[in-house]
Amino acid sequence: MIPGIGQSMPGVRNAHGQDYIDRAYPLTVAPGGASSPHRHTGPVFAYVLEGEIENQVDPDPPRKYKPGEFFYEPALHVHRTLRNLSATQAAKLLVFEVGEKGKKFTIGEK
């Protein structure tokens, strides 16, 4: 976790009065690695630090990202895949997410 991140967001609540929390963390994707389809209950922003990835969030087509670029995942949209395009080098991202405090943030998708 990054200092100052991962804390409640005072005064920021959803329609049901639940508090939100923000989180930031580094994500390493192994060479050739890929995620399974899933959804997030809150928005996600990811900044590519190293490597080249392919990312696809419904309803958009897959798109490639390289260092210095970022992508956004709207809440509850299906994140079809995040794939490292290199077979030899890890990809590294910095991920920022916002979600309801005390709630599961990632939901598997079939």
Give descriptors for this structure:
single chain; three-stranded antiparallel β-sheet; five-stranded antiparallel β-sheet; 53% strand; 110 residues; 0% helix; Jelly Rolls; mainly beta
Number of domains: 1
| Named CATH architecture | Sandwich
CATH superfamily: Jelly Rolls
**Class inferred from helices and paired strands:** mainly beta
Query: Quick check: average pLDDT?
Result: 85
Shape annotation = globular
Please give the count of helices: 0
Extended strand count? 10
CATH topology: Jelly Rolls
N-to-C order of helices and strands: EEEEEEEEEE
Main beta sheet: strand number and arrangement?
5 strands, antiparallel
- List the quaternary state of the chains: single chain
Helix content: under 10%
